[in-house]
């Protein structure tokens, strides 16, 4: 099944339904389908083998997804926040691309590529019409979308997602036309992230109006929820933190909002609890997935959140820190280093399998094992009831004096201290121990915690070998657009400094 079919189903069922709101631009499903046809003609006329997009998203993302599919070529939204050199390096890795770029990023793209401005592409799509022989559904097993990984622990890899990967995820998790007539989704995740791609596909398929906020601002987010009658939204941790701050300051209610999903990286439990208390009528969803899995593979549902928040049973309450249970179409295993499949409560590497899982990289090929299992590189545990706990990337493991230490174990304790707003635990080099444990802490507003106090707090709850060797303070943690902490940046900083 091609992603083209998702738009064809939506436009043929209800061509007059509002599909996209992006600034002053409003498109029905019929409008979007006509523009996708015109956009496909533009791509075909250019003779491109690939479409690259450098921009903030909005209506351009769904348009380019479907225009590229109808032209039978893959599309790659790129991180517009990268340096010019970084952008050009990624574009150069794509075969004979047509680069569609927002005006403000045109200089960063530079020369040497076939380039068309976003406004120019949109205008051309309104007037071009593809020849019938150029219009065909692509092979379901052909690549539909290529996304570059964030590169927080290594150089970015180009993940190849086939039409079948993407549509398997959509049809396996979303019921076609299931949205209510007034349903609206507020989308503020970046277009170059799998969450941005899946939001465009899933909301169109469900029948929700998609309201785009291309440059996140918490106050504008709150305003749009009210102005557009937003019923569902997806945010990353840094966004949720800022939204909660605005809601507290303004004492604002969000009466239309029914579902708020968060993901992209781990969210501190105190923030989750605060959000649940501020928005008691909203159903919170923790969604966990990877680029290589075409988006979500496990979900902590609204009911899971409420039950865990109100439970006196320690095992049930602990689930608030999980990513929930795997979606029905996904199989999961936890494996030891020797490949042995581990049981409930045992920690190892998470492996996943399913139709939505790609596990294929340009220039590398497939990394699936002989039985179709994908190694996520995430440290994880499953409990007796099938709830999945993610302990961070295996690359983040600190090896101090030969002992493996998971940063998440220490972070989960530290962030519960009342004077800690956020934290990250990393392992810079040390001549004696190989690595040491350093806690980088963002203090709570108005708080001035002392390093020894925080070290004692951890020592009281974990064994002594987990106590941070040092505690340093920052006003904020360096993160990418999806809220993932840039640990390499912290380690580089600490390696460059002598201990105080």
Describe the fold and architecture:
The longest helix has 18 residues, at 29-46. The strands form 8 sheets. Strands 2-1-10-9-11-12-13-14-15 form a 9-stranded mixed beta sheet, sandwiched between helices. A 4-stranded parallel beta sheet has the order 4-3-5-6, with helices on both faces. A 4-stranded antiparallel beta sheet has the order 16-17-20-21. It folds into 2 domains: 3-305, ANL, N-terminal domain (Rossmann fold, 3-Layer(aba) Sandwich), CATH 3.40.50.12780; 397-495, GMP Synthetase, Chain A, domain 3. The protein has 500 residues and is an alpha/beta fold.
Describe the protein's topology.
Layout: H1 3-13, E1 18-22, E2 25-28, H2 29-46, E3 50-54, H3 60-71, E4 75-78, H4 84-92, E5 97-101, H5 106-109, E6 114-117, H6 118-127, E7 143-148, E8 158-162, H7 163-173, E9 184-187, H8 194-206, E10 209-212, H9 218-227, E11 232-235, H10 237-250, E12 259-263, H11 269-278, E13 283-290, E14 295-300, H12 302-310, H13 314-317, E15 325-326, E16 331-335, E17 348-353, E18 360-361, E19 365-366, E20 374-382, E21 388-393, E22 398-400, E23 403-405, H14 407-414, E24 420-426, E25 429-430, E26 434-435, E27 438-443, H15 451-459, E28 470-473, H16 487-495
Helix pairs in contact: 1-2, 2-3, 2-6, 9-10, 10-11
């Amino acid at each position: 099944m091609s992603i083209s079919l998702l738009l064809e189903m939506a436009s043929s069922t209800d061509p007059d339904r509002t599909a996209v709101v992006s600034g002053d631009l409003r498109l029905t499903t019929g409008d979007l389908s006509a523009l996708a046809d015109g956009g496909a003609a533009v791509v075909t006329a250019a003779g491109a083998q690939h479409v690259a997009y450098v921009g903030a998203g909005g209506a351009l993302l769904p348009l380019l997804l479907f225009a590229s599919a109808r032209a039978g070529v893959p599309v790659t939204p790129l991180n517009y926040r990268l340096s010019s050199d970084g952008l050009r390096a990624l574009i150069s890795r794509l075969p004979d691309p047509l680069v569609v770029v927002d005006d403000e990023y045109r200089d960063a793209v530079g020369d040497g590529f076939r380039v068309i401005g976003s406004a120019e592409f949109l205008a051309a799509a309104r007037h071009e019409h593809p020849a019938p022989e150029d219009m065909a559904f692509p092979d379901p097993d052909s690549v539909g979308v290529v996304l570059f990984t964030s590169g927080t622990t290594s150089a970015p890899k180009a993940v190849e997602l086939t039409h079948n990967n993407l549509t398997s995820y959509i049809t396996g998790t979303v019921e076609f036309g299931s949205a209510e007539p007034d349903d609206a989704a507020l989308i503020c995740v970046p277009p170059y992230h799998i969450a941005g791609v899946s939001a465009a596909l899933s909301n169109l398929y469900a029948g929700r109006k998609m309201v785009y906020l291309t440059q996140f601002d918490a106050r504008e987010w709150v305003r749009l929820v009210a102005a557009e009658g937003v019923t569902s939204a997806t945010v990353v941790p840094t966004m949720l933190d800022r939204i909660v701050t605005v809601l507290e300051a303004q004492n604002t209610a969000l009466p239309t909002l029914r579902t708020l999903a968060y993901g992209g990286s781990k969210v501190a439990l105190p923030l989750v609890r605060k959000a649940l208390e501020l928005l008691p009528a909203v159903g919170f969803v923790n969604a966990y997935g990877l680029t290589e899995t075409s988006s979500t593979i496990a979900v902590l549902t609204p009911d899971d959140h409420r039950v865990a928040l109100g439970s006196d049973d320690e095992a049930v309450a602990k689930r608030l820190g999980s990513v929930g249970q795997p979606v029905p179409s996904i199989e999961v295993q936890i494996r030891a280093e020797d490949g042995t499949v581990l049981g409930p409560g045992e920690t190892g590497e998470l492996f996943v399998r399913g139709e939505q899982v790609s596990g294929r990289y340009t220039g590398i090929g497939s990394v699936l094992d002989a039985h179709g299992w994908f190694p996520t590189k995430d440290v994880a545990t499953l409990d007796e009831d099938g709830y999945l706990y993610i302990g961070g990337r295996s690359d983040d493991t600190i090896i101090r004096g030969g002992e493996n230490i998971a940063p998440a174990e220490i972070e989960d304790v530290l962030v519960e201290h009342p004077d800690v707003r956020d934290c990250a635990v990393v392992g810079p080099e040390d001549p004696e121990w190989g690595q040491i444990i350093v806690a980088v802490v963002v203090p709570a507003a108005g708080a001035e915690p002392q390093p020894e106090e925080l070290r004692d707090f951890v020592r009281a709850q974990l064994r002594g070998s987990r106590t941070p060797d040092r505690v340093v303070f920052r006003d904020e943690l360096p993160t990418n657009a999806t809220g993932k902490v840039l640990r390499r940046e912290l380690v580089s900083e600490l390696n460059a400094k002598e201990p105080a």
